[in-house]
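Q: Make up one entry.
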Amino acid sequence: MLPRDQKCTGYLMNDLLLWCDLDTVTSAIKDLAVLPDLNLLVKFSGGVVKKVDFKPILAGTSSPLLQQDFFAKVRLIRGFPTWPGQIDIEPEDLFILGEDYQKSS
């Protein structure tokens, strides 16, 4: 869910967001951190930090990303989280799918 003060312009079909331009929201990914259980911590240049759980994204697939050791090979290449074999995901998708993250004290 987008913060109230940020806008997403895109196209809706049957209440499904098909495309979203979040350039002003996400700008770019600054950093990534692999967390246990197929989770990725994503730090955006605007200061927003999101935790993305890949289990629901990968459910029903045979993706190599389902193996934690392969999942941990993610690298940030030209602003895109990328795995071996040219597997990548759009920063905007991570922003939409991720949950706001605040480190526990």
About this structure: The chain has one domain: 27-100. The chain has four helices and nine strands. Confidence is low (pLDDT under 50) at residues 1-7, 9-14. Residues 33 and 41 are 5 Å apart (CA to CA).
